[in-house]
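Exercise 7.
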Amino acid sequence: MNSTRLPANSHSLLNEIQALGIKIEDDGDLTVREGGAGPTDHKAVSIFKTTVMIPVLSPSAESSPFIATKPSKMGVASLKRDGKVLTTIRFIGEPRFYSEKSSDGIPFWKIARLHSKDVLATTVLQNCIRYKNKDTSCQFCAIEESLKYDTTIAYKKPKHLAEVAQRAVALDGVSQFIMTTGTPASTDRGAKILFESVKAVKAAVDIPIQIQCEPPDSFDWFTKLKDAGASAIGMHLEAVSDRVRNRIMPGKAEVSMAYYFKAFQAAVEVFGRGNVSTYILAGLGDTQEEILSMSERLIAIGVYPFVVPFVPVRNTPLENHNSPDKDFMHGILDPLANLLVCAGMTSDTLASGCAKCGACSTLSIFEKKHSA
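Solution. The predicted structure, written as tokens, is:
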């Protein structure tokens, strides 16, 4: 890939590109996962010396002013705006471990996926007790769509995860493993499934692991998960005001904010500052002020608020909901990055997890601006 000098406003430009997405002139040779949980309809793109997840199949991407030429066999393309070439970019290709199968014949790509350039990620349980009930489901969630597309399996056994982790590390140099889960009908809210998964993987290969679940009934699970080998935990708020929580995620909103904060504080005691994080989806209805106020509260107790732009997913109630624009995101990410730098809790200090990867937001790039 040709080197391109990092522009002084790279944080602002990358924020705009991630908000609007990239339209690809010819994506016939480009592998993109369509539908499902996580950053779906996105593609990992190396640009300005960093890798970010960029929407390429979303409605905003279809009308984006950012257009990529047909990628070469190595994934290299020119990124243009208004007909003018801005820079050279590279689409991250398919990892080698995708070509292999588990000991019982399941393709590894159905067990775990490559995120960004070197992060392994999986949804251990691809079902959720709230998903099929409109009175309880999170309106942005598409967790079971992957099952409809036959791009995954409903439950990844511990042995599956251990086998894919071994090969992903050996073949593709994967640097960390992120395990999330749908919420089962048990009071531990998925902690037990994750405990079994982490234990199996750590017995097979030494790799940092972040686990993600709702706050469990007993905070003793945090110690069990840490002892099993997890280095970080994410418990995701998604929305920060009860107004938005009750409207967008009515079932999950039954777990009160007060309980989340009790869980956050207990988890920080086990995993340490910064290695407890929470996803916040900007653009669901919370104001900039509400997100920044909540972020200050979280940082004060040692929780990293990973703020990402909401991107609508097809076949969900919010599939036609707009993504936040670049100005809305800039108004959050710029002051938030400064808060994190001042707290000494930046993405590069974390052990593992989505915030460590940073590709689904440009927050870490804003951190570098304030650290310079």
